[in-house]
Design brief:
The chain has 316 residues and is an alpha/beta fold. 49% of the residues lie in helices and 12% in strands. It has two domains: 3-229 and 307-315, Alpha-Beta Complex (Spore Coat Polysaccharide Biosynthesis Protein SpsA, Chain A); 233-300. It has a seven-stranded mixed beta sheet, with helices on both faces.
């Protein structure tokens, strides 16, 4: 099979018939063998019934339906587990992404040899309250992830080589960072294609402003995981040692000043009045906490079933 199209959806009943017809038109034109996997993320409208109706007349349509709303990332993850095509395309269900882009995305994966191609909504049809923070967010993501050529990490329209989706796990809200997840798994040939974007035709956006706060927190988590995920002591041990050194130096100062004051008749030094005393106290307590966090982290990674999961590129 050439292509698997994964479509996560939450309350998108009005858009589905149009989307499905558009996809089959494009696929028929190019003669691809394909499947469309609709992942119904616990919709409360009649999206599921609409999909059932569409599937009756079209054997390419498959459906996974969650019993409640889990989020876009879990929906993509479950879709990915079920794909059979050589190239996997993801797209939003709200008609903002155009199926006309699929043939070129497919070509970039199969002929240009990309592992992942991400869409870039260069001209966006979204409100300013969304586009401006998105620019900032993408700049940070580029810096932290080291994927310098991507302008639009969170574009719903993406294409993947089959192996990529089988080897990455998307959870929480991590769909915003799939290129970063792919890079961490060793798939480094990541490209970009300018894609046509449309204003939302039906329904409303499913993400509020909290997307930006959560987005940054997730980025911090991913950065930490990729750098220190299997060796937490390397970070916490370093911080702990630094704190201990600061604490030690401060306590030496306290001792020296106390000795001087004991030997002198007109210089009085009170330990509890000294800023160095409090500095050493705070530094020692923080140092100990960093060390303990590091140890607990090491114990957790040691017991993790993932600790020796390596992705083998080739083997003879
Ligand atoms: N979506 C989903 N589960 C959710 C929220 C969204 O499957 O909990 C789907 C949604 O139906 C759409 C895609 O994810 O197909 C992108 O959502 P949306 O269009 O609301 O995001 P925006 O375009 O505003 O960033
Ligand atoms: Mg949308």
């Amino acid at each position: 099979m050439d292509i698997s199209i994964v479509v996560p959806l939450y309350n998108e009943a009005e858009s589905l018939p149009e989307l499905s017809a558009w996809i089959s038109r494009v696929m028929a034109q190019k003669g691809f063998t394909y499947e469309v996997i609709f992942v119904n993320d616990g919709s409360t409208d009649n999206s599921l019934e609409v999909i059932k109706g569409l599937a009756k007349d079209d054997e390419h349509i498959r459906c996974v339906s969650f019993s409640r709303n889990y989020g876009k990332s879990p929906a993509l993850n479950e879709g990915f587990r079920r794909t059979k095509g050589d190239v996997v395309i993801t797209m939003d269900a709200d008609l903002q992404d155009s199926p006309d882009e699929i043939p070129e995305l497919y070509r970039m994966i199969t002929e240009d040899g990309y592992d992942l191609v991400s869409g870039w909504k260069k001209k966006r049809y979204d409100p300013l309250s969304k586009t401006i923070p998105t620019k900032l967010f993408n700049a940070t993501a580029r810096k932290v992830s080291g994927i310098k050529n991507l302008h639009d990490f969170n574009c719903g329209l993406k294409a993947y080589r089959k192996e990529v989706v089988k080897h990455i796990e998307i959870y929480g809200d991590m769909h915003r960072y799939i290129p970063y997840l792919a890079k961490n798994a060793g798939y480094k040939k990541i490209g970009e294609k300018v894609v046509h974007h449309q204003a939302r035709k039906y329904g409303v956006t499913k993400f509020g402003l909290d997307r930006f706060v959560n987005g940054y927190l997730d980025l911090a988590t991913l950065w930490f995981q990729s750098k220190f995920g299997i060796k937490p002591m390397h970070l916490f041990g370093l911080l702990g040692s630094l704190m201990f050194i600061i604490g030690f130096l401060a306590i030496i100062v306290v001792l020296v000043l106390k000795c001087v004051s004991l030997c002198s008749s007109d210089y009085h030094f009170y330990v509890t009045n000294s800023v160095y005393f409090y500095l050493s106290l705070a530094a020692m307590v923080m140092g100990l906490q960093f060390f303990l966090t590091g140890f607990v982290g090491e114990l957790i990674t040691r017991n993790s079933p993932e600790r020796n999961n390596y992705l083998i590129g080739e083997e003879w």
